[in-house]
UniProtKB/TrEMBL annotation:
Family the entry assigns: Belongs to the insect chemoreceptor superfamily. Gustatory receptor (GR) family.
Pfam families: 7tm_7
Protein location: Cell membrane
Membrane topology term: Multi-pass membrane protein
Highest taxon above the source species: Eukaryota
Organism name: Cardiocondyla obscurior
Listed GO biological process terms: chemosensory behavior; male courtship behavior; sensory perception of taste; signal transduction
Record-given protein name: Gustatory receptor
Keyword annotations of the record: Cell membrane, Membrane, Receptor, Transducer, Transmembrane, Transmembrane helix
Gene Ontology cellular component list: axon; dendrite; neuronal cell body; plasma membrane
Lineage: Eukaryota, Metazoa, Ecdysozoa, Arthropoda, Hexapoda
Amino acid sequence: MKLFARPKYFFEAIASLTILNCLLGLRVFEYPREQPRPVLSLIYLIIIYVVYCGGSLRMEEKYYANINLMKLEYILYQLLSYVIIVSVILKMLLGWWHTKHLKAAMMRIMMCEKTMNQMGLQKNYRKLYMNQIYSLTFIIIIFIVFVVVNYDGMFMEETPMHIRLIIMIAANYPLCLLYVSDASFLHWVRQVHLELIKSTRSTNDAYGIQILLSMTISFVFITSLLYYAYSIFWLNLSREVFRREMVPVVGWILFYSSKILVINHMCAMTTIEAANTGDIICELYEPSTTKEFRAEIRDFTLQLIQNPLIFTACGFFNLDHTFIHGVIGSVTTYLVILIQVGDLPSGGKSNSTSRYNETNFTISDSLFTTISYT
């Protein structure tokens, strides 16, 4: 299929997203189509994970072993580093394990396509395909901007160029993995409606644990980044240094916040649209129609009531606007707790200078990098 050719089928419209999933190790290669290559895919998956672990652990340990952190910051730093590593391998393995759910959803969509063809209904996938290309291009540009913003404060001056390249790949690979997983979930959610309720649930089952990890990681990092921003605020820094240290932190806060907002908003809007479909069906219930037709509407309405469309993160919580409210309250609560139990000064900035004197407040892991000087 050519890049800007008009896609005829749904699987052609999502070809770019499928290729990204395969390149990041989230799915089994299929070449030709419907011919999986599990052995080659497994070898590729192992190579990716070895490169990632080598870049994120060995290189970091070798070049950043002399970094001094306060006790609470060191614990958070180590914890978040291992959380990211575990989440990466879980997303890879879960992507493989739940491939059957995605195939089941695809089969239902293809059956609907066949029915639409028999009814003479036209399908226009070009807009969907081009919007997908534009979105992926925009995200690539955003990643490049993030890399440029964080590049200066991410390495020591004596770090060789090839080591920088390896660490940059290891640092940004989890971000690509999280984005593609979230984007795949959102893309499927946007394309299904009432006739594809089962496909939506299959998609929810396939991405349930991944979305749970994504929401949990976003919550933890938003709280941690806000705490680090508070720590930087109490340092007696010049305006230029303060700007250089605060801009990356604010950027990462916006990144993780947008993940929570977009995913939950899209799920909430899809649920609302499914409910609105039931309202439209009920408007067809008129006395002028036949008894059989009215009976079908009653049965269909009962089915909608008994089987509402609800998106969940592996059953732990619903993905909707209520979850956004809960995250805001929880982040505020835990941020206050961290400030109270942490070893940050509670006085003015002048008192904090003596506490932080001759201490490099440096955080450099696979998701964010913050360096503060005194």
